[in-house]
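G., the chain you wanted modeled:
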Amino acid sequence: MKCNFNINTTMRILLFLCATFLATSCETGKKTPALEYKYADKEQSINCTGQKNALLNEALYSFEQDITRNYDPETQRTTVAYARFIVPGLSGTAEFNRLPSDHSKAILEKLKEEKIIVMNLEGKSNLNYDHPAVTCLLDNLEDGAIMKTLKALIETGSMDPKLMDTRMRNKGRDLDRQRNLALYVALDAYYQNLANIDWDAIPSETTTE
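Predicted structure as tokens:
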């Protein structure tokens, strides 16, 4: 009887340890699926040494595709789309739930995985201004006045994209040339807002590829 008790106890312990190991392995090994780089043949204008340049360039082009499709479907001009998106995007009032393609949502998951987009203590998303890729981006903004304003707000802990909407209002026509600034808009006015949406509650037909 004693022998049976020991065997049963040992088996329970082994089963418990196996279950714990498998659960831990699944959790720690959990990653988003590999991202398809649809815009790899486009000019790779974002270049920060040692950073996620391919991901950042992909994020920029997919964002531009989304806003052009939604904000200038007639003429498909990216500069027009930027001009119409910048203020509602930075102020957080755009209809973000209807804007992204499935590809942009996949990019968002990668940005979160890389900690470029993070969740704060209140459960709201933020662009991670301390991430090396974001720091590099801000250091290379083409507009010196906007760079100075952004850095001052970040250093004082008072940065909020809403504070930039009027300052950026007339920049739409420049962002086809000022690509680092364009990526800032993509990250802080678009992707970080998408991260607040529960996509499972949104009908799939509201987005396109």
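Strands lie at 117-119, 125-127.

Shout if anything looks off.
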